[in-house]
Amino acid sequence: TNNLFTSVSSPLISLVPLSSDRPPAPVNVSVMHLRADSATVYWEIPEGEVIIGFSISQQRQEGHTQRFIREVNTTSRSCVLWDLDQETDYIIQVQSIGLYGESQASKRVHFRTLKKSDRFPSNSSNQDDPAVEGVDKSRQLQTGEMIIIVVVLLMWAAVIALFCRQYDIIKDNDSSSGKDKVKPSSMASTPEHCSGGLLRSKSRTPV
Prior knowledge:
By secondary structure, this protein is of the alpha+beta class. It is built from 2 helices and 8 strands.
């Protein structure tokens, strides 16, 4: 009887998921790209873990209702939160979803949305916001590109002006040399005509 009970119960025990099989909780959770009605959540997970998705919980700091967002893309490490209220404090947590259940919730991250009048994000859960740095870098790139384009255009204009000037000089030299060549040819034709006339007159005189 004892052997029968052991053989039957052991498979049942193996089907119960162990706590060690649960995936680890995400780390380095942060909120960036803050707007009046949206924000982007970023996180990281340890390498070598089998993850099939993520769960993001969103809650107002002064409220009790929570909103859960399921992210089934295993390669994604970010999620955009939409339909947020302006100038409102929120709390978010991220969980990893594995083959045997969900991980523990990550540390709570607080953030506050902006006003609608604010064009660019002025604060974030991190001290260095890549969104602001990206805007500054894009502005610097645009300014540098405009300077390069202006310099190239000025160089082309200088090259064209120099070419036109050289072309005018060469054209003037060709026209002056052409005039000099025409004068000797006209002068040389006159004696030939005269000599030809003399020869003709001599051939007509009787012997």
